[in-house]
Specification:
alpha+beta
């Protein structure tokens, strides 16, 4: 079983969002030493990452998407269900029955799932791809599937070449594509000496097919994010969603809404990038904030914005106020006043913390006044989205 949702209310002729999610948390064939491949540990964050993302998509975001949600195909292996993953019903019409078996992300299953996801696809459709699990880098980025290690004589054949996959996607009908790669890009020692071909592109690319797709389907809008840069690791949290999925979900929840069109605020590709990039700054109390890595966006430099979902309410700009030395802020009095206003919209004395976080109406100029035992400091800032400019206000005391 790969399809966990199919929209029963969507007419056959309607444009739709098609989603393919891969979560590889178990690697049963990579547990013993081998001169051909590394030993891979199972990942406890994969199941929570994939399930949280799909749950948000079905229960929170689906009503406000730029296109109606059409289908979700999902493959998953996870530490919480080592004998085989099963669907947990969310109470959404069109979802799979509670307890339905979910196939593991093996190469054979991925090929079937991709075909299922794109069956009958048209150029006005949107396509979203998320993978979560082990990965590595050697001139290209690769995603490691759960059957990695088989066959033992050619273990690197069961990995996805993400760069070639992305190129292959330029040939498919949906011309709006979201791509999210939540996996490491470190360089295992075993891969450096490998001389034969590595990985599978899933979609074979040819210059003729790319040209034909551009002519037949029109311009491509492709955007995505990767959780790591070449040579770097991506970090999960035991038994919780990975840090990358945490940032991505927060962006889609609303932090990525930075553009307004026809009276509606929209989460779009530029906003998603801004939200992920600023996540650790907007939440400065995060443990291990340095693990919230951000990789350069995947983009084909399309001229317009790609809109994902609209918001029912106006987004807020997140302000971070601190001092140097840090403890001075705890006893300070702070007032924040919009330009042209007589009364502050925020006032607190004493602040009582070393870092003050405030959410205020966006796209307005503000005057921030901090009083440190009679010494008054003033800063002018602009409430940009998703974070105020400058990125933080640091008072020198």
């Amino acid at each position: 079983m790969t399809q966990v949702f199919s929209n029963p209310a969507l007419p056959a002729s309607a444009a739709r969002l098609r989603v393919l999610v891969l979560g590889a948390g178990l690697y049963p064939n990579a547990k013993t030493p081998s001169t051909r491949r590394p030993i891979l540990q199972d990942l406890t964050s994969v199941g929570p990452s994939v399930r949280e993302f799909v749950s948000k998509l079905l229960r929170m975001w689906s009503a406000d998407l730029a296109l109606p949600l059409g289908t979700i195909d999902m493959l998953l292996s996870e530490t919480a269900q080592p004998n085989g993953s099963r669907w947990t019903a969310l109470g959404v019409p069109g979802e799979a029955a509670d307890g339905t078996a979910i196939d593991a992300p093996t190469l054979a299953h991925v090929n079937v799932a991709l075909e299922s996801c794109l069956e009958g696809a048209r150029q006005q459709d949107h396509f979203l791809f998320l993978c979560c699990g082990h990965g590595f880098w050697k001139s290209h980025a690769y995603f490691v599937l759960s059957d990695f290690g088989i066959p033992a004589s050619n273990p690197w054949s069961t990995v996805i070449d993400l760069d070639d996959f992305r190129l292959g996607l330029t040939q498919i009908a949906p011309r709006t594509q979201w791509l999210f790669f939540d996996c490491c890009k470190d360089i295992p020692e075993r891969i450096l000496g490998t001389l034969s071909a590595i990985g599978n592109p899933l979609i074979q690319s040819t210059s003729e097919e790319i040209a034909r797709a551009n002519k037949r389907f029109g311009a491509l809008a492709q955007f995505g994010l990767s959780s790591a840069t070449p040579g770097q690791q991506a970090f999960g949290i035991p038994d919780k969603p990975s840090r990358f999925c945490e940032m991505l979900i927060e962006a889609f929840n609303g932090a990525g809404a930075i553009s307004k069109r026809d009276g509606q605020w929209w989460v779009d590709d530029r906003g998603v990038g801004d939200a992920v990039r600023s996540y650790a700054q907007r939440y400065p109390e995060l443990p291990n904030a340095e693990f919230y890595n951000f990789a350069t966006p995947i983009s084909n430099d399309m001229p317009g914005r790609i809109r994902f979902r609209k918001l029912a309410s106006e987004p807020k700009s997140r302000f971070v106020i601190l001092s140097k030395p840090r403890p001075a802020m705890q006893n300070a009095a702070v007032k924040v006043t919009p330009d042209g206003a007589q009364q502050p919209v925020f006032s607190k004395s004493p602040v009582g913390c070393a870092k003050l976080l405030i959410e205020l109406p966006a796209r307005r100029n503000y005057t921030v006044i901090a009083n440190f035992g009679g010494a008054e400091k003033v800063v002018e800032v602009y409430g940009a989205l998703p974070m105020a400019e400058p990125d933080d206000w640091e008072f020198l005391v």
